[in-house]
Amino acid sequence: MASIDFYTHPMSRGQIARWALHETGADYDEHLIDYGPAMKSADYLALNPMGKVPTIVHDGAVITECAAICLYLAQAFPEADLLPRTAAERADYLRWSFFAAGPLEQAIVSQSMGWNAGGDSQLEGRLGFGSFERTVATLSAWFAGHDHVCGGRFTAADIYVGAQVDWGLQFGTIEETPALVAYAQRLRQRDAYQAAKAIDADHIAAMDDDR
């Protein structure tokens, strides 16, 4: 019996958590939850009071939020070698994981909603990301000189940061710079990425057939 229960919907950020599960090689039991009453049921809200996916439960511990899930799984399954090995790698690992979960996420959502400081430097100073353009340029500049978050090797940080880049390029919410496109292409070649995406694609196709 798998020690991880994975609650997800195929058309959600649960795709990130599934990718992380496949990178670690962890066994898991999948629980597909429809949007609507199921996500707001008392049983599910007891696990995730936000009423959203993904959620994983590992040996009784509940973990939500994709960035946390990615980093947690790397720690729980060290044999997958997804953790930073040096102090320098650990600095980059944490820096860019939190950058993607904070400034980058905020910048993308704000841009999509049409919320911005209008070039007002004082207003930009009150935002956690300053401006969308500066945030994306900062991320792109990193990958112009690094193949992965921690330089030349893939870590769990690349799952979360990479998913933000991958989705942003796919849906047009992040500018297509050469560095970001090349980074996404490297990640899409990974076996775990492809295996996880294939499962969710099959679920989505089945849902379409049922409509």
Please explain how this structure is put together.
This protein has 211 residues and is of the alpha+beta class. It has two domains: 4-80, 3-Layer(aba) Sandwich (Glutaredoxin); 87-192, Glutathione S-transferase Yfyf (Class Pi), Chain A, domain 2 (Up-down Bundle). The chain is 58% helix and 9% strand. It has nine helices and four strands, in the order βαβαββααααααα. It has a four-stranded mixed β-sheet with strand order 2-1-3-4, covered by helices on one side. The protein is globular, with a radius of gyration of 18 Å.
Question: How far apart, in Å, are the first and last alpha carbons?
Answer: 33 Å
Main beta-sheet strand count, sense and barrel state:
4 strands, mixed
Give the CATH architecture of the largest domain.
Answer: Up-down Bundle
Average predicted local confidence, pLDDT: 94
Query: Could you say which overall geometry the principal axes of the C-alpha atoms support?
Result: globular
**Uncertain regions spanning at least 5 consecutive residues:** none
Biggest sheet strand line-up: 2-1-3-4
Please indicate the count of domains: 2
> CATH topology of the largest domain, what is it called?
Glutathione S-transferase Yfyf (Class Pi), Chain A, domain 2
Query: What is the CATH class name of the largest domain?
Result: Mainly Alpha
Radius of gyration from the CA trace? 18 Å
Which class of secondary structure composition applies to the elements?
Answer: alpha+beta
Give helix % range.
55-70%
Number of helical segments with 4 or more residues: 9
Beta-strand proportion: 5-15%
Find the count of extended strands (DSSP E, 2+ residues). Answer: 4
Order of helices and strands: EHEHEEHHHHHHH
